[in-house]
Amino acid sequence: MPKKRSGGGLSPSQQAAKFLGVSVLAGAVLAGIALPAAGALGLAAKGSVEGFDEIPANLKRPPLSQRTTILDNQGGQIASVYSRDRTVVDLKDISPYMQKAIVAIEDSRFYEHGAVDLKGILRAVNQNAQSGGVAQGASTLTQQYVKNVFVEEAGDDPTKVAEATQQTLGRKIRELKYAIQIEEKLGKKRILENYLNITFFGEQAYGVEAAAQRYFSKSAKELNLQESALLAGIVQSPSRYDPVNDEAEATKRRNTVLTRMAEVHDITRQEAEKAKKKPLGLHVSRPKNGCITAVKGAGFFCDYVREVFLNDPVFGKTKEARAKVWNQGGLAIRTTLDPQAQQSAQASIKEHVNKSDDVATAATIVEPGTGKILAMGQSRPYGFGKHETQINLSVDKEMGGGAGYQPGSTFKPIVAAAAVEGGKSATQQYSSPYEMEYPSPVSVCGGKNWTNLQNEKLTNENESERGPYGMKEATAKSVNTYYVQLISDIGICPVTDMAKKMGVNRADGGKIAQAPSIALGTQEMSPLTMANAYATFASRGTYCTPIAIESISQTVGDEKKSLRVPKSSCSRAMSETTADTISTLLKGVVEDGTGTEAGLSGRASAGKTGTTDFRYAAWFVGYTPNMAGAVWVGDPAHKRRMTNITIGGVYRDKVYGGEVPGPIWRDMMTGALQGKPAPNFNLIDIPDPEPDRGNDDGGNGDDGKGPGNGHGNGGGGDGGMTTDGGVTTDGGTDGGTFPTPSFSIPEGFIQGQGNGGNGPGGRKG
After folding, report:
1. Which pLDDT tens digit goes with each residue over 129-168?
2. Contact 152, 47 (CB under 8 A)
3. The whole model's pTM is what?
4. Measured CA distances, 529 to 101, 363, 504, 546, 672 (Å)
5. Which whole-number Å values give the CA distances from 444 to 202, 206, 487, in the listed order?
6. Cross-strand partners of 550
7. Helix axes 118-131, 12-25, angle to 10 degrees
């Protein structure tokens, strides 16, 4: 006696034989399902027993893509992102009305037949013959589920989606074999559950839970009769029956479902008629997908997390493999973002800079000794509208940022660190005149020399600033000529080596130029790079690569697993003594130097101001022993100079690093550190030099407002020349614009324009 199944119908082998018999003897049967008439011509070849047996026995069901939740370090939600908006739920969490409605309208004999409904096929053939076209299909819910699995497996690949949905007999036969297998393995209730979780309901909603939230702002478990009928009706054609865009058509379709539910005795006719009179009752929730939904202004940090995932090999060997995992979703990503720090950063930014200002600001906070990114924000919100952007101004180009910005004098502490680490005393004095030519020759990496062939000059901010100076006073006042003399003394290679150890790189991925002007911050860098570099000083010489992710768990089906995440790599960049020396120098900057407006009340702080050539950018980068942060202010397009400008409703004739970025940093760090320990620095005694203000040829400088000899604005070359064994080679690149000199240019003197070359670079902070 043939084996019967609990769900009704014949055994799998009997279904296959019967289906093939019907196919071979009456090709018109399947031709009438939903295929073009020509499709039946290939039936005998495609539908042979041998061809059927060649189809793999097991359907590889891909896990359903679901939303990914990005969390802060306290477990609070930052944003929800997804390739497909879906939340998988159990059948018990789906309204009984919804279960009955979908079965009634899509496959009313679902519980009576097996994988294929032969009565349904004959009914469809008859109906289609009468209509002269394809008026009715005959796919069961199980067959529809299989097709949806193919579509899900295709992902966002349009070619694969087309293959998964093409109306060919070969696909129909393959679909049938898998449907038979699934009926045997899963049973009716599990198939219905899977179907309701995978099906597309329009308006970006995949699965019934997302649809219930999308159209009614409630869970699938709470759906009433008329709501269930509406959703069940959408499935056949999500665009045609979209209730958001065509209420009348959606209402007709809903009422058709209610009628069908009454016909199959799921509800009474009275219940159906009563429900038909009800309005659609939509309570639409707009799709909330992506980093644009992030709270506390963390959209750019959210985007950075995505970039980390898509670029780090720990999540997959290839970019395609990583993208597949990301699009699959179901991830719970716990990040390093500190909600208190993030909220404080955004509050300070909003207080000092308006999103509609001619210039923008970006700020980042990291934790010394761990590399954890605690906050990341900017004045122009994440988005597509006016005064909005999707460019993350805090990070390097390869991670979604721009080409970076000249850090100006905030680069000087790196020069000081290289000098002290190499044996120079923090009491080292130089003549530090107001104006001077770049010293020449200067050693660079590879045993070569940089030579000032064009007699390029630089100046300090004010003529009253004349040396000699020691390192402490030169740092506090940000003296350009001191730092150019210092880098020329020790050579450029120790500075670029120190920068590398501290993770300092150009934002565009290029190499730092081999020229003395780098001491003035002529190489474009990002706020995250500068904040993390200063964290090296705060952690007493230990550099840690920045990280944004602490842990990730992924839900796939019923299983939950943990994924490996990138770990910060920490290494010693300099001795503790060197780091402590720099902290001592930079503490003086906020106490009685250019950064007094950035000083924190009640806790130790240190930092450095920077204002670049033409005032295209202004910075403050600073730290306490437990947090380091960078604030940049400027025009991302590098067109608006910060003179005669209103920022945050305050007019300023000139912008300095100490007076706009400094207060932003102060307020940001004050809130971020509230309630946190207030440790002290390990300071070094740096004696003041003996007073000596002779008529040395200059004076005391600053961050480089002087006329530029390279180009000030740019970033690639050195604007000068390198020589090796008497052979001169051009080391500069042409780029940038002429800086406005603060002295008269001698007749016939041509200023260099090399991008990244000997320009004024930094100014007084």
Report:
1. 555 544 344 588 988 888 888 888 776 666 777 776 776 7
2. no
3. 0.75
4. 57, 11, 6, 9, 19
5. 63, 60, 10
6. none
7. 30
